[in-house]
């Protein structure tokens, strides 16, 4: 059976815990400079229909560390979806490559790619889920807190995006208490909440528009306020989400001096980006989903989380090629 990694709900708590343990092992091998070219001779393709720094770099380095040949197929460089259907592309790529990473828009597309390629397919982000990010995030939580037992996390901001969806269902599967805090119009869709409840192994799951929901949590998470490819009025979105910014006041509301902050990145916390400057010139905001003060305070954890993308993606790919 082909072992793809398409969405979190395809996996049990035991599966995800195994991936976290395997990620930690690969991280240690890398730190000890022990070669681990366990997949030498395999060829993988990385399809990116959206831009990426972390996911692309993580798949590239992880693949090379495992001894694989890695080919990048960027947006507009292949026929996919324009001159050729996803089904036909899947059959062609599956006949040449041993595995395929796909970052795109519709979840359905990555599922089709997996069904028709006959090789493992790894979801590098769709509009619905960001599953490889989850292994890195829960690895980071395990490293910081020693275990996932009795942890409570809160995601605050746009509660309908792929990150909120993935955090909600992954927390449910792993039994980590999770609160999604978002304005009513940006709360998770009912089918996502239903999935989280169906796969829940004992977590408390809460959806609220009240920022007081951060009280007592161990970790607060946020993501950008407008996701890739979303055609929305930026000013309207900023006005709606400004009360949900991670700032010092929100940190104080947790009442927990040991709370940490995580962010999947990229983040709009200063004016050192083109988009950040553009928003500042148009609307006067120099920081969006997280203030620079908070970002800098928790930056060592946020960049530890980014590094963990590579170790966890290595574990995910390696696991796909192991017999049951
Ligand atoms: N977190 C994340 O997916 O980063 P990239 O968009 O840079 O891959």
What report would you give on this structure?
The protein is an alpha/beta fold and 324 residues long. The protein folds into two domains: 8-130 and 308-316, Aspartate/ornithine carbamoyltransferase (Rossmann fold); 133-307, Aspartate/ornithine carbamoyltransferase (Rossmann fold). 44% of the residues lie in helices and 13% in strands. It is built from twelve helices and nine strands. It has helices at 13-31, 54-65, 86-96, 107-117, 131-145, 162-174, 190-198, 234-241, 248-254, 274-283, 292-297, 299-320; strands at residues 43-48, 69-74, 99-103, 121-123, 152-156, 177-181, 205-208, 219-222, 260-263. It is globular. The termini are close together. The model has no long low-confidence stretch (mean pLDDT 96). Bound molecules: phosphoric acid mono(formamide)ester. Residues 52-55, 125, 133, 264-265 line the site of phosphoric acid mono(formamide)ester.
Classify the fold: give the CATH topology of the largest domain: Rossmann fold
Largest sheet, if any?
Answer: 5 strands, parallel
What radius of gyration results from the CA coordinates? 19 Å
H-E order:
HEHEHEHEHEHEHEEHHEHHH
Note the total helix count: 12
β-sheet strand percentage: 5-15%
CATH architecture of the largest domain: 3-Layer(aba) Sandwich
Pick out the low-confidence regions.
none
The neighbouring-strand order within the major sheet is: 7-6-5-8-9
EC number: 2.1.3.3
Binding site for L-ornithine: 162, 223, 227-228
Protein name: Ornithine carbamoyltransferase
Function: Reversibly catalyzes the transfer of the carbamoyl group from carbamoyl phosphate (CP) to the N(epsilon) atom of ornithine (ORN) to produce L-citrulline.
């Amino acid at each position: 059976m082909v072992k793809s990694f398409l969405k979190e709900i395809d996996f049990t708590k035991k599966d995800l815990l195994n991936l976290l343990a395997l990620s930690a092992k690969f991280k240690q091998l890398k730190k000890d400079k022990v070669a681990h070219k366990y997949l030498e001779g395999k060829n993988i393709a990385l399809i990116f229909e959206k831009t990426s720094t972390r996911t692309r770099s993580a798949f590239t380095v992880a693949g090379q560390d495992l001894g694989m040949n890695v080919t990048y197929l960027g947006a507009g460089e292949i026929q996919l979806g324009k001159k050729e259907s996803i089904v036909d592309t899947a059959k062609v790529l599956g006949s040449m490559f041993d595995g395929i990473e796909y970052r795109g828009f519709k979840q359905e597309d990555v599922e089709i790619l997996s069904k028709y390629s006959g090789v493992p397919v790894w979801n590098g982000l769709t509009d619905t889920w960001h599953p490889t990010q989850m292994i890195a995030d829960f690895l980071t939580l395990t490293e910081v807190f020693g275990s996932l037992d009795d942890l409570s996390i809160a995601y605050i901001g746009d509660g309908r995006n792929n990150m909120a969806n993935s955090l909600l269902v992954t927390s449910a599967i792993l039994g980590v208490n999770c609160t999604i805090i978002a304005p009513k119009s940006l709360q998770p869709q009912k089918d996502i909440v239903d999935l989280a409840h169906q796969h829940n192994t004992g977590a408390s799951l809460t959806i609220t528009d009240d920022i007081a929901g951060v009280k007592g949590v161990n970790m607060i998470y946020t993501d950008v306020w407008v996701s890739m490819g979303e055609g929305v009025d930026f000013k309207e979105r900023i006005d709606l989400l400004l009360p949900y910014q991670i700032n010092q006041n929100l940190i104080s509301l947790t009442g927990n001096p040991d709370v940490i902050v995580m962010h999947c990145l990229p983040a709009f916390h200063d004016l050192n980006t083109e988009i950040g400057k553009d928003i500042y010139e148009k609307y006067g905001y120099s920081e969006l989903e997280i203030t620079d003060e908070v970002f800098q305070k928790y930056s060592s954890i946020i960049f530890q989380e980014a590094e963990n993308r590579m170790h966890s993606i290595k574990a995910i790919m390696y696991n796909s090629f192991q017999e049951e």
